[in-house]
Amino acid sequence: MPEFSIFALGVVLLTASLVAIVSRRLRMPYTVGLVIAGIALALLPNAVELPLTRDLIFDALLPPLIFEAALHLKWHDFRRELPLTATLAFPGVVIAAAVVASGMHFLIGWGWIGAALFGVLIAATDPVSVIASFRELNVERRLSRLVETESLLNDGAAAVGFALLLAIAAGGAITPTALLGSLIWTVAGGVVMGLLVAGVLLIVAGRIDDHLVEITLTTIAAYGSFLLAEHLQMSGVLASLSAGLLVGNFGMMRSIAETSRGHVMAFWEYAAFLANSIVFILIGSQEAHQHLAFVAKAAAAAILLVLAGRALAIYPLCAVFSRSTLRIGSRYQHVLVWGGLRGALALALALALPADIPEREELIAVVFAVVAFSIFVQGLTMPWLIRRLRLSASLPEQHETHTS
User: Fold this and answer.
1) What Å distances lie between residue 354 and 112, 121, 166, CA to CA?
2) 257: number of CA atoms within 13 Å, CB side?
3) Which pLDDT score, from 0 to 100, does residue 394 have?
4) Which one, 191, 227, 284, 356, has least CB within 10 Å?
């Protein structure tokens, strides 16, 4: 597999800049424009090769995306919504994965291991396009917070589930006790690792007043927590999430100098922009080379099953909270279902599938099809859905907590 060259990076940066300008003028979701641009680049004569690998997404691009998103989460809001978002994320991933896995096994004939791995990895959601639409339409704050928080926890749950299934697929004798121990090590270990790495670096940051050094320390927190957790077979996603929460809440108030906070936040805003630009252009470039016609039946079934699994995860679990202070109305639930776009993590996990999975090549092609559908169909129709449901903060009926 060729490496991602400096020249290719230059092409991606120039393309991302042009797409940002054009997308804003056309009022088109930025991520959709990036994917289209990636497809166009791949179809040009003597096109620059833009390789998409598991390591590039998982080790280079995912940590800043997760860390930056967590950096903006307020602990008070996160903690208050945690019973709801954790329920939607963890049991929700199990429900969605079970629906998809069962459907792909019985309808398409995939083996249980391949179908289960596909079900778990495709449950990972990516709210980038949705959140961008929310900001443009001034969507009510709680809805935006729910979508982003649930997606971050959802990604962690999917990554954990995928790792456990890979251990089973490798032939390991997994007893219920061993499975529980592995789950605790992966989840709790990831959270503790993120807090530990970020905590140590914040102690150092509290003793200096240099925004360049403080930016560097937060970069170490994002990547160091992720990579160290993964090395110890913990959840890197949850490690970066907890590190970002600690830096964004405690660190910004206590450790990072007041004169440096603006610089730190601006750096991470750019880092997320850069990572997203690379990811979605690479998705487009790879979409152009996918032979989707050969997996049309499996792709169509997968798209329908993914939507059904998401609906069966969101609506019943939200009903559990219908009589609590965390209740959310049906309009918010519709957005959570339709806003469950797929992106970087799903592709990274798919590309990480072992070569001995019989359905591997077909599975990867189907993942690309589902990602393309979510970006082009769900992503492009999200602004229409928000207007249709009257969820813009500029419109009446903003307080969805009390309405349906």
Assistant:
1) 15, 14, 8
2) 15
3) 54
4) 356
- What pLDDT does 399 receive? 43
- Distance, in Å, from the CA atom of 136 to the CA atom of 242, rounded to the nearest integer, reads 28
Give dist(CA 161, CA 371) in Å, integer: 20
Q: Report DSSP letters for 216-263, one per residue.
A: HHHHHHHHHHHHHHHHTTS-HHHHHHHHHHHIIIIIIIIIS-HHHHHH
Query: d(Cα 282, Cα 35) in Å, to the nearest integer?
Result: 8
Give the Cα-Cα-Cα angle 17, 342, 371 (nearest 5 degrees).
Answer: 80
The secondary structure of residue 48, as a DSSP letter, is P
Residue 306: closest CA among 165, 119, 157, 129? 119
pLDDT at 138: 85
* Residue tagged 């913990």 (tokens): 234
Which three-class secondary structure state does DSSP give residue 166?
A: helix
Give CA–CA dist 127/148, Å, rounded.
6
Q: What is the mean pLDDT of the chain?
A: 90
Dig out the tokens for 185 from the structure. 């090590």
| Tokens 């809440």, residue located | 249
**Architecture field, domain 6-402:** Up-down Bundle (1.20)
DSSP characters for 318-356? Answer: HHHTTTSTT---HHHHHHHHHT----HHHHHHHHTS-TT
Diameter of the chain by CA atoms?
60
- Helix pair angle (211-231, 62-71), 10° resolution: 120
**Mutual angle of helices 236-246 and 62-71, in 10-degree steps:** 30
* pLDDT tens, residue by residue, 242-297: 999 999 999 999 899 999 999 999 999 999 999 999 999 999 998 888 888 889 99
pLDDT tens digits for range 384-400 = 999 999 987 654 444 44
C-beta separation of 159 from 117 below 8 A: no
